[in-house]
Design goal:
It is built from 15 helices and 6 strands. It is an alpha/beta fold.
Length: 395
């Protein structure tokens, strides 16, 4: 019941447009929670097996430790191997995603062979390693992951819901509702506030994180599997685990889906309703446009790599960002959630094309523009339609 689930939290964060730090806290909590929660379930199940079967607890503890060591080693080995193979060019470009997917399945199955549900920890470690390897193909791998996640999670949810008896759901009583309410209103806030004691995180961000705890697919899947095993051990209440898990997922998804945005806005941690504009380039045209948008109470920021190009905008009181909008530093300094549109108006046509092409997945093709490129007289010299974005006209 402790896992929050990245597959559920990610769309909620996009919808609410949270500030960078609370969004990062919730995102990373969900990522780290999934394998830890599954392993906590494994540990709890082993304790129950030992108590019911009156077996030796030392053997179960040794098996758990060996499984943890194997899963961590498998995750590190898989991540390191993939990173080296992609960096050294051992894998052709068109085979990178299939090779990654194959290695992922091997690491997951191999780790699970030593300890049940430890494969989730192994592939999480593998993913963290690959994400921090600074691979040139990282964005392509990330997009594949997002598409696969949507398809697979949707399918698993349908299968799990179809396997639940409607009569059992209707049999849930007030105790079940009180249990779900206690997790949302007591367990979640107490856990978050205790975890963040001694940190410099503001109270508003702590409150938002304490309020937000949607559960996802891992909870339903793991609870269903261990519920069946508990029933096989003679514990009749094990049949209730899947139902309680499904009820918790349904209640939290609906609750936070409707309330996260207004709560974040009330705490001052949301981007607001006004669609913001990020403008790349520090020309006089951009300065005029930025000042106009600011006068219209539209959130706007102008980015340029040349400090002098931003002087006029600063004098007019228009927010500016000195640096490359594609850099990692800009990602941390600039909260992209506040901006719905991107306009590339620098004097470098190639740079405009690069920025719009790279950030199109973040903003969407309909919300990204660039200064109209000079039309080439020959079709041989024209850029393909997959590069750049819609033309921006100023008149």
């Amino acid at each position: 019941m402790i896992v929050t689930g990245p597959a559920v939290i990610a769309p909620l964060l996009r919808q609410a447009k949270l500030s960078h730090r609370p969004a990062a806290l919730l995102q990373w909590e969900a990522i780290v929670d999934d394998p830890i929660g599954a392993l906590a379930a494994v540990l709890a199940y082993e304790v129950i097996v030992v108590s019911v079967a009156a077996s030796i607890g030392g053997a179960a503890a040794v098996q758990l430790i060996i499984g943890l060591v194997v899963s961590i080693a498998a995750g590190v080995a898989g991540g390191y191997g993939i990173a080296q193979a992609l960096r050294r060019g051992w894998v052709p470009e068109y085979m990178k995603v299939p090779v990654l997917f194959s290695v992922l399945i091997c690491v997951f199955v191999g780790s699970n062979a030593f300890l049940y549900e430890s494969g989730l920890l192994a592939v999480t470690i593998m993913g963290v390693w690959i994400a921090n390897a600074n691979l040139p193909s990282y964005e392509e791998l990330r997009r594949f992951k997002e598409h696969a996640m949507v398809l697979l999670v949707s399918g698993v949810f349908v299968l799990l819901v179809a396997s639940i008896d409607l009569g059992l759901i209707m049999a849930l009583d007030l105790r079940a509702l009180a249990f779900i309410a206690a997790i949302i209103l007591l367990a979640r806030p107490i856990t978050v506030y205790l975890s963040l004691l001694g940190t410099k995180i503001p109270d508003s961000e702590r409150t938002l994180v304490a309020f937000t705890g949607p559960r996802g697919i891992v909870l339903v899947a793991v609870a269903g599997l261990f519920g069946e095993r508990l029933v096989a051990l003679g514990i009749a209440d094990g049949a209730m685990m899947a139902l309680l898990a499904f009820g918790l997922v349904a209640v939290t998804v609906v609750l936070y889906g409707f309330t996260l945005t207004p709560v974040a806005r009330a705490l001052g941690l949301s981007g607001g309703d006004a669609p913001g504009v990020l403008i790349v380039g520090g020309t006089s045209l951009v300065t005029q446009l930025g000042a106009l948008l600011r006068d219209l109470d539209v959130p706007v920021v102008i980015s340029d790599t040349n400090h002098r190009n931003l002087r006029n905008a600063r004098d007019l009181g228009v927010p500016v960002l000195h640096g490359d909008v594609l850099s990692e530093a800009a990602e941390h300094m600039l909260e992209l959630h506040r901006y719905d549109h991107l306009i590339a108006l620098s004097e470098n046509e190639a740079y405009n094309t690069l920025v719009t092409t790279d950030l199109t997945p973040e903003f969407g093709r309909n919300n990204i523009f660039q200064l109209r490129r000079d039309r080439e007289h020959s079709s041989r010299n024209e850029l393909p339609s997959t590069l750049g974005s819609r033309a921006f006209f100023w008149g």
